[in-house]
């Protein structure tokens, strides 16, 4: 049963967001109008910032091999964002029918050398859809990636292939459906809940056909379809945790001479420059460090504006001054609380 719910005002006051995939407690249900109120958001076992989803088991990162061409820098950024959320990722390389088999094999080998599972698929020909369906079966997944790579087309292809295998309708007897057959198939759209798909722009960029995150039943599991975007946020990262988001670094870091090594120019570093993504790692390190420095400057500016003294009103209207101490540096935990 589906309910159209509003969120309690207290949740908005405490800035408690409600995400796709959240498990919630609903109160005040009106079964006639199918309405209710989200009273509480239950604890999350996982959360992803871009796209904003919760309680997923894995992330499917979809990239195109052509139209638009595969960009390893963008792929790395998506993978780092997924690693920061501590979620397993599977890389899906769509539009395999548009490139030679040698180029497809090279792209797969490159992604697998990074430490990730990679699948070459084609929504147009049906290649790799059976393997992708097995990955989705029985799990809660989210699909993410740039615009125009064919995320919604893949979801439609999996639905159509499953429908063709389980029904004796005219659509099933016509063989594996193609992208050209999808347009104008109003009956299939209504029956299977197919996602809208769009073409690329004249510049070869994807259009934002998917406008919001939605949770769908696909291949015996739940799959969150999300709008495409080219730059996932890295706000949750810091310099100390960045290296843990690269499987190549984690594999080599145990033999590194320094526990706090940044894997840049340190002598005796076991990670430096002998892996393919080192240049991309250095770029992201500089970006994250610049963001940390900016946050530090803004924090210092805020402290200067607030000053180092605060005023208190005493008996008789007398104002007294006392030092405004940094809670993290100067405040001590109450001994009464410690004893408890």
From TrEMBL:
Residues 41-234 form the EngC GTPase domain. It comes from the Eukaryota. Gene3D superfamilies: Nucleic acid-binding proteins, P-loop containing nucleotide triphosphate hydrolases, Probable gtpase engc, domain 3. One of its GO terms (molecular function) is GTP binding. Pfam families: RsgA_GTPase. HAMAP family: GTPase_RsgA. This is GTPase EngC. It comes from Coccomyxa subellipsoidea (strain C-169).
């Amino acid at each position: 049963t589906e309910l159209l719910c509003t969120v309690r005002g207290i949740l908005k006051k405490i800035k408690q967001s409600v995400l796709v995939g959240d498990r919630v407690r609903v109160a005040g249900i009106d079964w006639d109008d199918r309405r209710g109120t989200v009273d509480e958001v239950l604890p999350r076992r996982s959360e992803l910032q871009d796209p904003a989803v919760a309680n997923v088991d894995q992330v499917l990162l979809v990239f195109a091999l052509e139209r638009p061409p595969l960009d390893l820098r963008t792929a790395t950024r998506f993978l780092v964002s997924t690693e920061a959320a501590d979620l397993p990722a599977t890389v899906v390389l769509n539009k395999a029918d548009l490139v030679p088999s040698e180029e497809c094999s090279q792209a797969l080998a490159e992604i697998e050398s990074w430490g990730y599972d990679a699948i070459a698929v084609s929504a147009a020909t049906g290649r790799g859809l059976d393997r992708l369906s097995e990955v989705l079966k029985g799990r809660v997944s989210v699909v993410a990636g740039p615009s125009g790579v064919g995320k919604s087309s893949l979801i439609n292809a999996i639905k159509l292939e499953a429908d063709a295998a389980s029904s004796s309708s005219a659509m099933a007897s016509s063989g594996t459906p193609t992208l050209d057959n999808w347009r104008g198939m109003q009956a299939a759209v209504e029956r299977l809940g197919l996602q809208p798909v769009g073409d690329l722009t004249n510049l070869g960029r994807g259009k934002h056909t998917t406008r919001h995150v939605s949770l769908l039943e696909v291949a015996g599991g739940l799959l969150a379809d999300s709008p495409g975007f080219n730059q996932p946020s890295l706000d949750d990262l810091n310099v100390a945790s960045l290296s843990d988001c690269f499987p190549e670094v984690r594999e080599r870091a145990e033999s590194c001479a320094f526990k706090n090594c940044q894997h840049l120019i340190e002598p005796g570093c076991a990670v430096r420059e002998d892996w393919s993504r080192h240049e991309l790692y250095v770029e992201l390190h500089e970006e994250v460090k610049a963001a940390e420095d900016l946050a530090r400057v803004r924090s210092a500016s805020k402290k200067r504006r607030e000053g180092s003294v605060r005023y208190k009103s005493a008996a008789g209207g007398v104002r007294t001054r006392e030092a405004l101490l940094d809670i993290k540096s100067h405040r001590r935990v109450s001994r009464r609380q410690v004893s408890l």
